[in-house]
């Protein structure tokens, strides 16, 4: 029997892309901060500019960096309009995905989240758990064009949460109650009710976000 080949190491351009994207999403590279291509190459162990430029081009397509002629590279900022657009997209896509494809989500995954929502004290990182929950609800959506558009805003949502960390964005008890309304309907195969509960959940999150924008300064 032929031995399995060892797993191929990610290409340099993929490593550069993942490295930079993580730094941007975690706000280690702050919105509107200028980046130096040569320094970025050095940070990654003096890789060549070719894989770095490939990674930067991909990040520009995703809207995470802006390449300014004669000025250089800048981490894209986040505006109030970005936040409004993000929730508009989520309100259009998430309830649609749940209503039409929720029955494809593994039931055990939904059961697991229901159990977790009854015991929020077991959750180490509530924001991550919340993101994972919404990712699960979207996981069965087969439309690659909707998924591509939706995936682009998930990073924006992460950055916005980190940027507004000094203002509590999530009431854990309330969020658990809202999640349970979605889950109870889903586990009863009532996908219209589940989608309506999800829409209400997102509308409350949008209203909270818009309130936060009014009291803090985005970078």
TrEMBL record:
<keyword id="KW-0238">DNA-binding</keyword>
<feature type="domain" description="HTH gntR-type">
    <location>
        <begin position="10"/>
        <end position="78"/>
    </location>
</feature>
<dbReference type="InterPro" id="IPR036390">
    <property type="entry name" value="WH_DNA-bd_sf"/>
</dbReference>
<dbReference type="GO" id="GO:0003700">
    <property type="term" value="F:DNA-binding transcription factor activity"/>
</dbReference>
<keyword id="KW-0804">Transcription</keyword>
<dbReference type="InterPro" id="IPR000524">
    <property type="entry name" value="Tscrpt_reg_HTH_GntR"/>
</dbReference>
<dbReference type="Pfam" id="PF07729">
    <property type="entry name" value="FCD"/>
</dbReference>
<dbReference type="GO" id="GO:0003677">
    <property type="term" value="F:DNA binding"/>
</dbReference>
<protein>
    <submittedName>
        <fullName>GntR family transcriptional regulator</fullName>
    </submittedName>
</protein>
<dbReference type="Pfam" id="PF00392">
    <property type="entry name" value="GntR"/>
</dbReference>
<dbReference type="InterPro" id="IPR008920">
    <property type="entry name" value="TF_FadR/GntR_C"/>
</dbReference>
<dbReference type="InterPro" id="IPR036388">
    <property type="entry name" value="WH-like_DNA-bd_sf"/>
</dbReference>
<dbReference type="InterPro" id="IPR011711">
    <property type="entry name" value="GntR_C"/>
</dbReference>
<keyword id="KW-0805">Transcription regulation</keyword>
